[in-house]
């Protein structure tokens, strides 16, 4: 990972500054500061927060194929955001916030929406506030069942193919002029400086 990070513009600049003293620890500290306390880290954090608070599974386009892959990706984004918060000295997001944003993201799938109801019911029954990890475990199981039922049947499988294809075209020809080949051509020519 360190070698890959050094191939960024910031990494190359820092490596060049220490080429004479071979001080890898200074390079690492400077890179760590850059990725945790700079405008770059703030912008990355903002981008992650926008995703966490606005993305909705089965409404917005999701490049992954399954609900399980979505919630795993969502969990990774939560981890990255918490890491950015920790490195800047801010407290990490609470379990309540994490549960709320993940629940909001899966609201358009009835099978997954039921997870929050079950989670709250279990909390009332056992007289405890559940943790994010327990909510995530329930949601992961529900997503696994959802994926197995949706993707097992070709008629319920979501259509993820959004590419547009053209299978027909129409060319009109005119034969009124014997010099004309019947086709209309349009082209731009550069006249140069003349």
Distance between the termini: 56 Å
Strand content: under 5%
Instruction: Describe the sheet with the most strands.
Output: none
| Chain-averaged pLDDT | 81
The succession of helices and strands, N to C, reads HHHHHHHH
SS-based structural class?
mainly alpha
Q: How many β strands by DSSP?
A: 0
Q: Count of helices? A: 8
**Number of discrete domains:** 2
Gyration radius from CA atoms, angstroms: 27 Å
Q: Helix fraction?
A: 55-70%
Walk me through what this model shows.
By secondary structure, this protein is an all-alpha fold. The protein folds into 2 domains: 1-37, no CATH class; 39-152, no CATH class. Helices cover 59% and strands 0% of the residues. The chain has 8 helices and no strands. The protein has helices at residues 2-6, 9-17, 24-37, 39-54, 67-87, 95-105, 110-126, 132-152. Helix 2 runs antiparallel to helix 3, helix 5 packs antiparallel against helix 8 (132-152) and helix 7 (110-126) packs antiparallel against helix 8. The protein starts with a helix and ends in a 42-residue tail after the last helix.
């Amino acid at each position: 990972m360190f070698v890959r990070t050094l191939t960024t513009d910031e990494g190359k600049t820092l490596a060049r500054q220490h080429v004479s003293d071979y001080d890898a620890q200074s390079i690492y500290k400077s890179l760590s500061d850059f990725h945790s306390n700079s405008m770059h880290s703030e912008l990355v954090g903002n981008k992650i927060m926008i995703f966490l608070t606005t993305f909705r599974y089965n409404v917005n386009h999701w490049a992954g194929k399954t609900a399980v892959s979505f919630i795993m990706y969502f969990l990774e984004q939560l981890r990255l955001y918490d890491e950015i918060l920790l490195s800047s000295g801010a407290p990490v997001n609470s379990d309540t916030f994490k549960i709320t944003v993940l629940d909001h993201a899966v609201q358009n799938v009835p099978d997954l929406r039921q997870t929050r109801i079950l989670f709250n019911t279990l909390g009332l029954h056992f007289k405890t506030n559940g943790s994010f990890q327990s909510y995530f475990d329930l949601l992961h199981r529900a997503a696994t069942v959802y994926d197995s039922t949706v993707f097992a049947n070709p008629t319920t499988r979501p259509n993820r193919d959004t590419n547009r294809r053209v299978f027909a075209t129409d060319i009109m020809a005119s034969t009124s002029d014997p010099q004309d080949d019947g086709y209309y051509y349009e082209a731009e020519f550069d006249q140069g400086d003349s």
